[in-house]
């Protein structure tokens, strides 16, 4: 067929000819038949098709309407929402360079119905929180999050530097593989320097792990870890807002939120909790308590007691121990975070209404207390010298060794109180303006 009538010889017109359809839509009508001769070759019964001007009209109006969406143009004309519009059916054909340069957006991402993971530890998603502006009680500023793809079970580790990521992951992989008698096959992360280091490469070679990366500036491809980050941060922020505790309790809130989510959330595919999928038994929630509630911790031989001294001390409930059956309590008397099973809770009273000496307000969390101090016990290698805030180095007897921890616990141990609460230690990305010499408005 041809759209050029002049090429046809012995042309015979017809009436009410058949329609020509391309791509499921009408493109023209056959008006007649003829022959085409070229170089002693004759082609007979060549159909003459009168071209439909619909496509050209669409392109013309698309440009007239400042490259408006074709779907909207079609609705304007078909539903007669405007006057003096052409009676054409606008369908987008091909790709226009100008539209792509002016309107192209990021590709959309949808949840995968079929998961690649066939068992626990087959694929681990991991990511690192952004640098926290306020140091935690253990002087940590990063949170390393690991999520199992199959069960959605989550582990969190608190770091001082990004360079600790590979060593923490190395210890974790060795322990979790031994615990579950299984192996890690793949790990997926973004292109952070902590995941592309030489140490991380050696770790993957040692355990035979395939390392996958998301595309640059495409966090959606690491969406499981990114979404878990958001869940933990929102839960931690909510706990701080509810209790009015200082911001440097953020690690305790994240640690507690992770512990609870593993046992109280429901996976979409398996309709079970991550804990049941990972451990093979249903979680027990009978020991759960309200974060930040007032509690009483038994003075079980921690210090000498006189005959008529109080047997318990006031405390704030701040979480659960991961490696033993114990609660984590901030002792208001000794001013340390302790772990004990001998705790009595008063969940009807939050500690924010029991401490008139605290300078917190619902509008903003204060960075200090007037008469109350919070000093966290840490392991010996976590002591920071010459910084005005040096936690002690004696570990609590029930705390597991750091090299054996699957999930890092912030600040456990027994130390002596050190006066008033220090101000929150903040990390400044920019140089303090009050230390700049000269006029800032003057050019260099």
From TrEMBL:
Domain of life: Eukaryota
GO BP: any one term: DNA integration
Domain Integrase catalytic: 115-282
InterPro entries named in the record: GAG-pre-integrase_dom, Integrase_cat-core, Retrotran_Ty1/copia-like, RNaseH-like_sf, RNaseH_sf, SH3_retrovirus
GO molecular function: nucleic acid binding
Xref: Pfam families: gag_pre-integrs, rve, SH3_retrovirus
Residue stretches in coiled coil: none
Protein name, UniProt field: Integrase catalytic domain-containing protein
Organism: Platanthera zijinensis
Organism classification: Eukaryota, Viridiplantae, Streptophyta, Embryophyta, Tracheophyta
């Amino acid at each position: 067929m041809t759209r050029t009538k002049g090429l046809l010889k012995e042309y015979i017109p017809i009436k009410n000819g058949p329609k020509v359809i391309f791509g499921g839509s009408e493109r023209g009508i056959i008006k007649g038949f003829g022959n085409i001769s070229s170089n002693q070759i004759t082609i007979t019964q060549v159909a003459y098709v009168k071209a439909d001007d619909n496509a050209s009209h669409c392109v013309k109006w698309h440009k007239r309407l400042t490259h408006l969406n074709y779907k909207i143009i079609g609705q304007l004309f078909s539903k007669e929402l405007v006057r003096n519009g052409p009676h054409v059916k606008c369908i987008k054909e091909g790709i226009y360079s100008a539209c792509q340069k002016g309107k192209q957006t990021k590709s959309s991402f949808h949840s995968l119905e079929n998961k690649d993971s066939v068992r626990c530890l087959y694929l681990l998603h991991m990511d690192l929180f952004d640098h926290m502006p306020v140091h935690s009680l253990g002087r940590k500023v990063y949170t390393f999050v690991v999520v199992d793809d199959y069960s959605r079970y989550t582990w969190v580790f608190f770091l001082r530097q990004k360079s600790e990521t590979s060593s923490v992951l190395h210890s974790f992989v060795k322990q979790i593989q031994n615990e579950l008698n299984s192996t890690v096959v793949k790990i997926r992360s973004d292109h952070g320097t902590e995941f592309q280091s030489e140490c991380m490469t050696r770790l993957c070679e040692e355990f035979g792990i395939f390392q996958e990366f998301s595309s640059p500036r495409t966090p959606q491809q690491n969406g499981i870890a990114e979404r878990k980050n958001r869940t933990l941060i929102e839960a931690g922020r909510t706990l701080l807002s509810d209790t009015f505790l200082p911001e440097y309790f953020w690690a305790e809130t994240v640690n507690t939120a992770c512990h609870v989510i593993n046992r109280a959330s429901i996976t979409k595919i398996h309709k079970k909790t991550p804990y049941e999928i990972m451990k093979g038994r249903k979680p027990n929630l009978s020991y759960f308590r309200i974060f930040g509630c007032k509690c009483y911790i038994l003075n079980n031989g921690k210090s000498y007691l006189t005959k008529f001294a109080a047997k318990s001390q006031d405390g704030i409930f701040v979480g659960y121990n991961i490696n033993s059956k114990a609660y984590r309590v901030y002792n208001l008397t000794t001013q340390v975070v302790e772990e004990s099973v001998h705790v009595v809770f008063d969940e009807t009273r939050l500690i924010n209404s029991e401490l008139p000496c605290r300078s917190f307000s619902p509008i903003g969390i204060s960075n200090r207390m007037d008469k109350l101090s919070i000093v966290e016990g840490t392991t010996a290698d976590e002591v920071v010298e010459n910084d005005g805030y040096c936690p002690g180095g004696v570990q609590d007897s029930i705390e597991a060794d750091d090299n054996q921890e699957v999930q890092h616990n912030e600040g456990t141990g027994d130390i002596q109180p050190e006066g008033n609460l220090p101000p929150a230690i903040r990390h400044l990305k920019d140089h303090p303006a009050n230390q700049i010499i000269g006029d800032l408005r003057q050019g260099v």
